[in-house]
UniProtKB/TrEMBL annotation, chain A:
SUPFAM superfamilies per UniProt: Sigma2 domain of RNA polymerase sigma factors, Sigma3 and sigma4 domains of RNA polymerase sigma factors
A Pfam family per the record: Sigma70_r2
This protein's name: RNA polymerase sigma factor
The DUF6596 domain, residue ranges: 194-294
Entry keyword set: DNA-binding, Sigma factor, Transcription, Transcription regulation
Domain RNA polymerase sigma factor 70 region 4 type stretches: 126-176
Annotated InterPro entries: DUF6596, RNA_pol_sigma-70_dom, RNA_pol_sigma70_ECF_CS, RNA_pol_sigma70_r2, RNA_pol_sigma70_r4_t2, RNA_pol_sigma_r2, RNA_pol_sigma_r3/r4-like, WH-like_DNA-bd_sf
Organism: Actinomadura viridis
Tagged with keyword Ribonucleoprotein: no
Gene Ontology molecular function, alphabetical: DNA binding; sigma factor activity
From TrEMBL, chain B:
Matches recorded under InterPro entries: Dimeric_a/b-barrel, YCII
Pfam families according to UniProt: YCII
Family: Belongs to the YciI family.
PANTHER family from the UniProt entry: BLL7171 PROTEIN-RELATED
Name of the protein in its database record: YCII-related domain-containing protein
Organism of provenance: Actinomadura viridis
Chain ranges of the YCII-related domain: 1-92
Superkingdom classification of source: Bacteria
Amino acid sequence: MTTAETNREIHRRIDAVWRLEAARIIAGLARLVRDVGLAEELAQDALVAALEQWPESGVPDNPGAWLMAVGKRRAVDRIRRDQRLERKLEEIGHRMETGPESGADGADVEAVLDDPIEDDILRLVFTACHPVLPTPARVALTLRMLGGLTTDEIARAFLVPEPTVAQRVVRAKRTLAEAGVPFEVPEGEERAARLASVLEVIYLIFNEGYAATAGDALVRTDLCREALRLGRVLAGLAPKEAEVHGLVALMEIQASRSRARTGPSGEPVPLLDQNRALWDRLHIRRGFAALLRAEKLGGPPGPYVLQAAIAASHAQAADAEETDWARIAALYEILAQRAPSPVVELNRAVAVGMARGPAEALGIVDALAGEPSLKRYHLLPSVRGDLLFKLGRFGEARTEFERAAALTRNAPERALLLERAEASGRAAESRPRSGRGV
Amino acid sequence: MQFLMMTTDTGSETTAPDEKLHAEMGAFIEEMSKAGVLLATGGLDPRAVHITSSGGKVTVTDGPYTEAKEVVVGFALIETRTEEEAIELSKRFWSIVGDGAGTIQRVFGPEDVPGA
């Protein structure tokens, strides 16, 4: 019984070590074998060795170094054995004799791995998020290689069957190998494009956790934290990239609201109705610091910096009435130019409505009427209904609220929209006064 | 999960504790930042002011002081996925710092609120 307990404890420790070390080990091995898929397999082999040996021998003093050493040994064995990889061994030997990493005995593979590993982790991020891979594969690889998550954990977090995730990972590794994707951080123009792909993956992971409407809520909160952690790690690896700090700032500030976002029965509470006392000041402060870092780097602000600046404006307002809507509308205008999208337009309309009145905002919303991507998006009629109500066009407002209610899948939200529809109906009957504008 | 890690004064060192604390914290911050888990950190002045509220009366005193070895001299708030990870990171901190003592305590968050 006690043995079983200790065994379980050791397994939990191995799990923790693995999550903390996976990225470093895979990245270090990838530099050696120049193949992230193979590197990941070798790292998994090392993990299996730990699971076999540590319960007997105890966890070593430096578990990360132990795993890395086993991984390296497996790598060398594998390279020697595998005909297909023989060429790689030659390449490595050659690189070590002639390349900048030389200085050590040419046959000494160890030397490669004694260099700082940070660059390798950055290479790993860029490779896992390579555009040759479909987005779900990038997400799965990133969580697996950089977060040390198991396929089972990824599957549960994304509400897909485990074999699907496993297959995604296998196929992604094969795609990377077949495409001959180099293990490197791209330079020049390609760097910006590839960095955008990395940031997109991290933010997607964050949103998957943040916008959770189904599944195990706890698992999904973990997903937010994982994305934040990845963002912070990336900010440390690429400190001169303003957009990385922008994304971290955005995620920190959004995460600061997590306690205020849902009501007692789990219903979503809109930003302006949230109890701001529940916002986590520590996360807000960290978000502001990251935003400041981004702004200090200069240059025209990118989409994440702009979104973070908008989030920061909300965070700065002591209560909803104090919101600096003029500033937020201005930020949305820049965002709409730099990263145009119907959702950004709709948000801009809301900000313009608050800053300059519902009439101007209605013009922006009406321009979105034929937008196919917003066809089933309940917020479009919901926002339009709100603007019409403020303009005193109660009958039309009612129709819009009803349409929005029919589109939402969230029951408490539907109830709220139907309530507003009813209120609009009552207002329409008791005859139009002039609009209750802002 | 958030954990508050605290280092306590072991009472052994009498020379320039501030400088030593500085170096320790520097190494720690680097390690934790690389892992992306550090939320906040700081050093604490061992001279504490004690405040007691009793029967509607608030009393502020400079003493009596806690035993030197129980005084918290530094803290770090970290965010990890499991308690094991926090302990693992703490072990690394101590492997950098050397001798010393401290505590790790879970900080309850929104996910720990009953009924949430």
